[in-house]
Specification:
The structure is a homodimer. Chain A is of the alpha+beta class. Chain A has helices spanning 6-17, 24-34, 43-53, 59-71, 114-126, 143-147; strands at residues 41-42, 75-79, 85-89, 98-102, 108-111, 130-141. A 3-stranded antiparallel sheet of chain A has the order 1-3-2. A 3-stranded mixed sheet of chain A has the order 5-4-6. Chain B binds a DNA duplex through residues 19-26, 42-44, 56-61, 63-64, 83-85.
Chain lengths: 149, 149
DNA sequence: ATTCATGCAAAATGTTTGCAGCTGT
DNA sequence: ACAGCTGCAAACATTTTGCATGAAT
């Protein structure tokens, strides 16, 4: 018997706690979302992928389902300034990564730095603020765009 | 004779360098933008304020002018996830501040931490990335919303 | 049975664009 | 005179909503 992923369990628990319903669509969207190669899917991209498997799904279902994932802590909502909202699966190892965004080619890469996280938490404490999520984004030129400048 | 602010000078220089034109609207928007109490104006808010002084101004002029400010380095474009783009005047002392955003009441407060900036730069260097701008945003509950939970 | 979810299309939102007339250089 | 700017309305893109039907509890 295949064990459920931790994420799927989180979703099912949230659904039953809130008296929502498990549906085929939610499962398909879940699978596509968590198997998406590369993080930061836009809703449109995910919709296109899901549509290939389940062709009569509607746009709104994808929107609503991503909000649901966000509400149950499975996804972060991100916005890198190109007008489209992106969603990123939350990792369960408690890791958090941040982003380098190239303003020339649009490439988004990730990094992780404990010290930045550490000081962020400290700032929050000093401000009597309870941090739920944090973002660190560095905008600039990636190495390949720098070379071709 | 009243001296021009450094910001106004930057704008005028940019305008002449790019062969653009100085207009009444740009001046009014400039004044309102830099005298806005609180940072992070949305375009709509700024439009409303400008309209009070110069009632036949159009929406698009405000949009276009804020982009102009961004292009000449007078403003940062920000997006805190509520669907509206906000603009923030760039300070001339070279300071950079970051944000605490309350997900309950929406309050945005600012902080500044040199260590976070320092490590951000270091990460960039390791990734052969040239940073132009960076964002650190902590999302969570502010002290008053924590109290009333 | 009841309540929630879906898909569709319509509406709402925020932003951009085309263009005729106007303004600054 | 020329090139750029404005205001307006229309276009656009993304996201939300209303509603009749269908599915899960």
């Amino acid at each position: 018997m295949k064990p459920k992923s931790k994420g799927k369990k989180t979703l099912k628990e949230y659904i039953s706690k809130e008296r929502l319903k498990s549906t085929k669509q939610r499962d398909v969207i879940f699978d596509e979302f968590f198997s998406y190669p590369g993080h930061h899917v836009t809703t449109e991209e995910l919709y296109e992928r899901v549509k290939k498997r389940s062709s009569k799904i509607g746009h709104s279902t994808v929107y609503r389902t991503l909000k649901l994932f966000k509400d149950c802590g499975l996804a972060f909502e991100r916005n890198f300034g190109d007008g489209r909202t992106r969603y990123e699966p939350v990792k369960f190892e408690g890791e958090h990564h941040d982003h380098l965004i190239c303003i020339e080619c649009g490439k988004i890469s990730e990094f992780k730095d404990r010290r930045i996280e550490h000081y962020s938490k400290e700032v929050a404490r000093l401000n009597d603020f309870e941090v739920i999520n944090h973002k660190v984004e560095l905008y600039g030129y990636c190495s390949s765009c720098r070379k071709s400048k």
